[in-house]
Specification:
The chain has one domain: Four Helix Bundle (Hemerythrin (Met), subunit A) (Up-down Bundle). The model has no long low-confidence stretch (mean pLDDT 83). Strand 1 and strand 2 form a beta hairpin. The N and C termini lie far apart (45 Å). It has a two-stranded antiparallel ribbon. It has five helices and two strands, in the order ββααααα. The chain is mainly alpha-helical.
Length: 133
């Protein structure tokens, strides 16, 4: 059964919404752990904010919208599936890295499975999204 809204498929937009939700779920962890980022950084705070927060979330937003447009019109498009997968992967990487940072560095032992989150976040990080040191 396919969900259709005004002649268009709805499920590609749900994939994009999931990616955006996962990316935004990492923001509270980043805000809580913000002092962890400050001490070793030498660049201005606006550069850190742009590179660590706004850039990846904007990338997930753009990739999700593109995947939604492409897959709602051509469900078999490999490009649409690739964009959707990349959006989900980047969002999931952001969340697992922030989770691991909170569980292992900022407040050790405060969250369970920090080692697993760090391992997953490291292996899902691509060349455009380096792992958290």
């Amino acid at each position: 059964m396919t969900i259709v809204l005004r002649g268009r498929r709805l499920w590609p937009w749900l994939i994009g919404a999931l990616a955006i939700a996962v990316a935004l779920a990492s923001v509270p962890l980043l805000v809580i752990d913000w002092p962890t980022f400050k001490p070793g950084r030498i660049e201005p705070i606006w550069v850190t904010t742009l590179a660590d927060v706004i850039g990846p979330i904007f990338a997930v937003l753009i990739l999700s919208v593109l995947a939604g447009f492409i897959l709602s019109r051509r469900p078999a498009s490999p490009l649409g599936w690739a964009l959707g997968a990349i959006a989900l992967l980047v969002a999931f990487t952001m969340l697992t890295q922030e989770y691991a940072l909170r569980a292992l560095v900022a407040a050790p032992g405060s969250l369970p499975a920090g080692d697993l989150a760090a391992w997953i976040g490291t292996w899902t990080a691509g060349p455009g999204h380096p792992p958290v040191p």
